[in-house]
C-alpha cells in the first residue's frame, strides 16, 4: 500500500523536530504536526525563557557585587515588562528557526493538532493522512496536585505570561523547576517560600549537593519549608492562602505548583492505534523506542525516561539515522550530564554517592571553598562544593557533582571524561587551568572518605 508519508511525527518539540528534520535530510517523505508552538516546551515555556530569567535574576546580584571591585553602580530596580519583551522576542526568534529548519529539510509542516485514527492514519486538522511509520513526540504537561483550591495555583507555563512580578510567592515542590523558579523570583525581588514534602529538595541528586543547595538558598533569604505539602489553597481579598499540615499557613500573591509533569497522551487516539501506555500515561517503548505497534515509535518526555531536551534531541536523531540513514544506533541514557539553574547552579554527571556505594566500595573526594569572586564580594551563600566519586576496584570516576558559579558550564567538559570512562589517575594527570574553580576537579588528592564498603562485603 502507498502511504502519503514515509514518516509522520506528532509533536514539534525538541525530540520531534530533530527526528523529522534528520529523517527528511536522509530523503524520507516526512510530515510533522504541532498544535501549539514549534520548539515545544524547551523553547517556549521551558529551558530557553527560564535561562533568560535566570540571567536576569543574577544580574542584580552582580550589579551589587560590583561595588566590592571598585565600581559605583546604581540601579533603579527591575523592569519586568522590559525583561518580558526581550525574552519573548528571543523565544519567537528561536521558535521560527525551528519552522525554517524543517521547511529547509523538505518536511511538510502542519500547524494543527494531530490524532491517531488507526495504526497508519492520522487526522491532522481537517485532513486525513497516512504514514508508513509514525513517531509520537507530544511531550509532557505540568500537573497540579489533587488538593482543594488547586485551580487557584499557577503552573510553570504561567511564569512566562505574568504581567508583573508577584511580591510574595509560594513555590510548591522540590524538583528542578521549583528550585529554579524560587531563585529567579527571589533574584528579581520577590519574597519566596518553597514548600516541599521531603526532608531535602532535589530527590535523586547527591546528598552533599542537596545540603549545600539548602544552605545557599537559605543564605539568600529564600524560606525553605521541608516536610511541607500544601493541603489547600483559598483566595481571600485578592491573596492566596496556602494551608499545609500542622497549621502551617502562608499568604501569597501567587502560588506556583512545580509538582512534576505528566506525559501528554490524552485523546491522542492511542487506543485506536493499539499503542499501550503505563499507569501514568507514559507510552511504553522498548530500547529502540518502538511502542506496542512495531512501526509506531515514541520519543522525548512522552515516554517519561530522562526528561531533558538534549536527551530528546539525541534520541530523535538516533531514531532518524536508524530508520532512514542506514546507521542503526541508540542514544545512551547512562551518564547524562545535567544542570539545575538555581543560584548558584548545580552541575552533575554519573552516579550519586548513595547510588555508587550501593554497587560497591568507592572513594569520595569533596572540596568546599569560597570562589575568588566572592572572597572579594563577600557575598554569603556562594561557597562552591565539588565532589568526585571513584570506584575503588577500577579507579573510574563514577560521578562528578558541583554546586557553585559556572557549574553547568564546567560539568559539560567533565561529562565527556566520565562518558569516556576516565579514571581518577586521568583526572590527576590533567593539568589545571589556573586560577579557576574548575581546576579543583583535577587537583583533588586527599580522599575525604570511603563508602559502599559494607555493600561490597554483603
Ligand atoms: P520533578 O520531578 O523534578 O519534581 C517534582 C517535585 O514535585 C518533587 O519535589 C516532588 O516531590 C514534588 N511533588 C510531586 N507531586 C507532589 C504533590 N502531590 N504534592 C507535593 N509535592 C509533589 O519535576 P519538575 O516539574 O520540577 O521538572 C520536570 C522535569 O523537567 C524534570 O524531571 C527535569 O527532567 C526537567 N527539567 C529540567 C531542567 C534542567 O535541565 N535544568 C529544568 C526544569 C525541568 P518528591 O520528590 O517527594 O516526589
Q: What's the short story on this structure?
A:
The protein has helices spanning 14-25, 40-45, 47-65, 80-105, 176-187, 207-219, 270-273, 309-324, 353-359, 372-377, 407-420, 424-429, 453-457, and strands at 5-10, 30-33, 108-110, 114-118, 121-124, 127-136, 140-142, 168-172, 191-195, 223-225, 230-236, 239-244, 248-252, 254-257, 261-263, 296-298, 338-340, 346-350, 362-369, 384-391, 397-403, 449-451. The protein is an alpha/beta fold and 458 residues long.
Helix content: 25-40%
- Briefly note the CATH topology name of the largest domain: FAD/NAD(P)-binding domain
Gyration radius from CA atoms, angstroms: 24 Å
Number of domains: 3
Instruction: State the separation between the terminal residues, measured CA to CA.
Output: 59 Å
Outline the low-pLDDT stretches: none
Dominant shape: globular
**What is the strand content?**
15-25%
- Total helical elements: 13
What is the averaged pLDDT score?
A: 97
GO molecular function, one term: glutathione-disulfide reductase (NADPH) activity
Protein name: Glutathione-disulfide reductase
Enzyme class: oxidoreductase
Family: Belongs to the class-I pyridine nucleotide-disulfide oxidoreductase family.
Amino acid at each position: 500500500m502507498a502511504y502519503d508519508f514515509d514518516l509522520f511525527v506528532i509533536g514539534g518539540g525538541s525530540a520531534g523536530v530533530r527526528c523529522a528534520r534528520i529523517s527528511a535530510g536522509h530523503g524520507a517523505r516526512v510530515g510533522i504536526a504541532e498544535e501549539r508552538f514549534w520548539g515545544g516546551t524547551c523553547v517556549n515555556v521551558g529551558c530557553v525563557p527560564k535561562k533568560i530569567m535566570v540571567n536576569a535574576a543574577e544580574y542584580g546580584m552582580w550589579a551589587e557585587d560590583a561595588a566590592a571591585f571598585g565600581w559605583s553602580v546604581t540601579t533603579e530596580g527591575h523592569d519586568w515588562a522590559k525583561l518580558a519583551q526581550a525574552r519573548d522576542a528571543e523565544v519567537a526568534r528561536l521558535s521560527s528557526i525551528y519552522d525554517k529548519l524543517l521547511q529547509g529539510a523538505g518536511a511538510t509542516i502542519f500547524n494543527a493538532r494531530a490524532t491517531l485514527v488507526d495504526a497508519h492514519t492520522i487526522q491532522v486538522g481537517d485532513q486525513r493522512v497516512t504514514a508508513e511509520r509514525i513517531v509520537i513526540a507530544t511531550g509532557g504537561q505540568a500537573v497540579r496536585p489533587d488538593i482543594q483550591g488547586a485551580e487557584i495555583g499557577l503552573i510553570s507555563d504561567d511564569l512566562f505570561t505574568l504581567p508583573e512580578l508577584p511580591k510574595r510567592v509560594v513555590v510548591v515542590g522540590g524538583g528542578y523547576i521549583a528550585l529554579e523558579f524560587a531563585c529567579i523570583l527571589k533574584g528579581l525581588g520577590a519574597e519566596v517560600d518553597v514548600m516541599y514534602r521531603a526532608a531535602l529538595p532535589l530527590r535523586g541528586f547527591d546528598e552533599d549537593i542537596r545540603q549545600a543547595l539548602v544552605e545557599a538558598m537559605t543564605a539568600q533569604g529564600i524560606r525553605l519549608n521541608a516536610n511541607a505539602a500544601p493541603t489547600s489553597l483559598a483566595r481571600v481579598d485578592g491573596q492566596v492562602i496556602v494551608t499545609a499540615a500542622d497549621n502551617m499557613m502562608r499568604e501569597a500573591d501567587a502560588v506556583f505548583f512545580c509538582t512534576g509533569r505528566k506525559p501528554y497522551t490524552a485523546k491522542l487516539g492511542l487506543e485506536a492505534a493499539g499503542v499501550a501506555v503505563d499507569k501514568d500515561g507514559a507510552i511504553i517503548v522498548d530500547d529502540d523506542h518502538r511502542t506496542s505497534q512495531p512501526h509506531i515509535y515514541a520519543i522525548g518526555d512522552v515516554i517519561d525516561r530522562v526528561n531533558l531536551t538534549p536527551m530528546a534531541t539525541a534520541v530523535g536523531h538516533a531514531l532518524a539515522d536508524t530508520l532512514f540513514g542506514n546507521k542503526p544506533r541508540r542514544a545512551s541514557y547512562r551518564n547524562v550530564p545535567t544542570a539545575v539553574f538555581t543560584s548558584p547552579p548545580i552541575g552533575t554527571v554519573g552516579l550519586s554517592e548513595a547510588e555508587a556505594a550501593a554497587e560497591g566500595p568507592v572513594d569520595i573526594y569533596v572540596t568546599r571553598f569560597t570562589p575568588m569572586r566572592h572572597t572579594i564580594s563577600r557575598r554569603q551563600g556562594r561557597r562552591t562544593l565539588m565532589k568526585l566519586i571513584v570506584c575503588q576496584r577500577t579507579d573510574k570516576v563514577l560521578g562528578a557533582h558541583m554546586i557553585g558559579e559556572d557549574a553547568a558550564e564546567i560539568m559539560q567538559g567533565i561529562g565527556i571524561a566520565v562518558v569516556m570512562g576516565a579514571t581518577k589517575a586521568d583526572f590527576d594527570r590533567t593539568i589545571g587551568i589556573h586560577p579557576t574553580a574548575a581546576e579543583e576537579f583535577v587537583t583533588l588528592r586527599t580522599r575525604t572518605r570511603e563508602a559502599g564498603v559494607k555493600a561490597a562485603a554483603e
